[in-house]
Amino acid sequence: MGVRLVGISGSLRRHSYNAGLLRAAREAMPEGHELTIHTIAGVPLYNGDVEAAEGIPAAVAVLKDAVAEADGLLLVTPEYNNGVPGVFKNAIDWMSRPASDIPRVFGGKPVALIGASPGNFGTILSQNGWLPTLRTLGAELWSGQKLMVPGAGQAFDGEGNLIDDAVRVRLGRFVAGFVASL
Ligand code: FNR
Asked: SS3 for 156?
C-alpha cells in the first residue's frame, strides 16, 4: 500500500502561494502514493477557558485524527516577520491539546517543511522557526532536502497556482524524497 501524507498550508488567504504550493505538491506525488490536503480554516484562537468548557473544537479534532492516521505530515509555511505565522502556530497549538494526546498525533511523526514567499529567502526563517515546536512535540523532522520558494510573485499566478516549472521539478524531487524515506 502507498504512503499517505497529510498536507497543511499555514495561510488562510484565498490566493495563497503556500496553499498553491501544497496543491502542486499533491500533483507532484509519485504514483501510488497520496497527499490529502487539510485546512486550518475554522480553527478558533486557542483559549484555555474554551478548551476547559467545550473540549477540542471539531475542526481541530479532524486535523488531529488526520495527522495521527497519516504516514507523514507536510507543513507548508508562510513567513511573517521572520518567523512562524501566528495563525499556523495557533492551529498546531490546538492540535497539541490535550497534552496526553501528543504522542498519538505527533509522536515519531515524520514531518517535512516547505514554504513560499515573495521575498528573497523563501521562508527559511519560518521553516527554522518551526524546529523547536516539532522537537517539543516529539515529531521527526525529515531533513533530507530543503525547499524554499523565493520570488513567489513570479512563481505563482494571481490565483496562487504554481506556474514555475523549475520549482515544480524541485517540488517533485522533494515529495519523492520524503515518500521514499517513509
Ligand atoms: C509578511 N511577509 C513576509 N515574507 C517574508 O519572506 N518574510 C517575512 O518576514 C515576512 N513578513 C510578513 C509579515 C506579515 C504580517 C505579513 C502579512 C506578510 C510576506 C508574506 O510572505 C506574503 O504575504 C505571502 O504572500 C504570505 O503567504 P501566502 O498567504 O501567500 O501563502
From this structure: strand
Q: How far apart are the first and last CA of the chain?
A: 12
* Domains located in the chain, CATH noted: 4-181 (3.40.50.360)
Mean pLDDT by 10 residues, the chain (182 residues): 96 98 98 98 98 98 98 98 98 98 98 98 98 98 98 98 98 98 98
Identity of the residue numbered 66: A
Query: Atom 10 of ligand 1 has which residue's CA nearest to it?
Result: 80
CA nearest ligand 1 atom 15, residue:
80
Helix axes 17-27, 165-180, angle to 10 degrees: 60
Work out which ligand 1 atom sits closest to the CA atom of 10.
Answer: 31
If one counts every other C-beta atom within 10 angstroms of the C-beta of residue 49, the result is 7
DSSP state of 46: P
Q: What's the gap in Å between 94 CA and the centre of ligand 1?
A: 22
Amino acid, res. 176: A
- And the C-alpha cell for 8? 497543511
Total-model pTM: 0.98
